[in-house]
């Protein structure tokens, strides 16, 4: 909660930051794009993706304090003027599959859910839960934040088809919806184009053509990318053996998996894992 002139600066950091205005009004803008500033009112939700540095304040151009000083009250904010209440949440993603959900979001997006909207209900419930300490509060807040993120992404992509990734739009197309769902639910299954086409109720040729048109790659190419993404996530766990990872993502053994992984990444999975452990990012 803040009264009067104030400003908050959030430097480059988490890949996804969400701000929810509970009461009052505020302005948000990216450090490198002040011309794109947006005013937020009660119930509005702002999403900053890609770790972009940004600012929130009572007005554009106001002096902004780093978050460390802001949250401790050492921000020189006078206790008068209009009140504003807002919530901030940061999300960090370690695996590749989670990034698929947010990589299509614009650098700064704003959703303005109306009364009765599911996202508005979730944010209202989150604000109510945070109003005062109570038993189980952290568990409730964590679950509400997860729910809010799902609803937010759904809302953002639903309203802005330009930024929605191809897989998101295709997932609602009845010609490919069931095959995509099946691949995601059982990536290790021995899928083939005829089997997937059968789930879609289409001929093999038509299914392959429609799938490629909608997603920009063949069904088997999509399945390989999905398996490799899941494999990279599992390889981040040092306790997971190559044989276990191979089995979980649909390869007969560690040798077949290693060959497929090297074809896609130019390096064996064991070497990829070593580079990750040494530098935090494979080279």
Please provide a written account of the structure:
The protein is of the alpha+beta class and 283 residues long. It folds into 2 domains: 2-159, Regulatory protein AraC (Jelly Rolls, Sandwich), CATH 2.60.120.280; 168-279, Arc Repressor Mutant, subunit A, CATH 1.10.10. 46% of the residues lie in helices and 18% in strands. The chain has 12 helices and 10 strands. The protein has a 5-stranded antiparallel beta sheet with strand order 1-9-3-6-10, with helices on one face. A 5-stranded mixed beta sheet has the order 5-4-7-2-8. Helix 3 (118-130) runs antiparallel to helix 4 (137-159) and helix 10 packs across helix 11. The protein is globular. The two termini are 44 Å apart. The mean pLDDT is 86.
Short descriptors:
283 residues, alpha+beta, Jelly Rolls, Arc Repressor Mutant, subunit A, 2 domains, 5-stranded mixed beta sheet, 46% helix
């Amino acid at each position: 909660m803040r009264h009067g002139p104030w400003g908050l600066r959030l430097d480059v950091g988490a890949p996804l930051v969400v701000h929810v205005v509970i009461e009052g009004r505020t302005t948000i803008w990216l450090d490198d794009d002040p011309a794109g500033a947006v005013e937020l009112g009660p119930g509005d939700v702002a999403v900053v993706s890609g770790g972009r540095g940004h600012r929130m304040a009572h007005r554009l151009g106001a002096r902004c304090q780093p978050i460390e000083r802001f949250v401790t009250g050492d921000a020189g904010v006078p206790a008068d003027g209009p009140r504003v209440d807002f919530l901030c949440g940061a999300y960090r993603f370690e695996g590749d599959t989670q990034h698929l959900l947010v990589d299509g979001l614009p650098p700064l997006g704003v959703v303005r859910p109306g009364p009765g909207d599911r996202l508005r209900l979730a944010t209202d419930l989150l604000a109510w839960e945070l109003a005062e300490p109570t038993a189980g509060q952290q568990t409730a807040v964590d679950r509400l934040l997860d729910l809010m993120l799902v609803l937010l992404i759904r809302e953002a992509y639903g309203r802005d088809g330009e930024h929605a990734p191809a897989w998101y739009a295709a997932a609602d197309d009845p010609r490919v919806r069931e095959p995509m769902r099946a691949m995601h639910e059982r990536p290790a299954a021995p899928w083939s184009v005829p089997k997937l086409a059968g789930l879609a109720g289409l001929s093999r040729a038509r299914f392959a053509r429609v799938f490629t048109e909608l997603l920009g790659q063949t069904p088997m190419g999509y399945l390989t990318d999905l398996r490799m993404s899941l494999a990279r996530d599992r390889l981040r766990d040092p306790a997971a053996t190559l044989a276990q990872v191979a089995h979980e993502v649909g390869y007969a053994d560690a040798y077949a998996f290693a060959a497929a992984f090297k074809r896609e990444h130019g390096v064996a999975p064991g070497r990829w894992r070593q580079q990750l452990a040494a530098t935090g990012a494979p080279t």
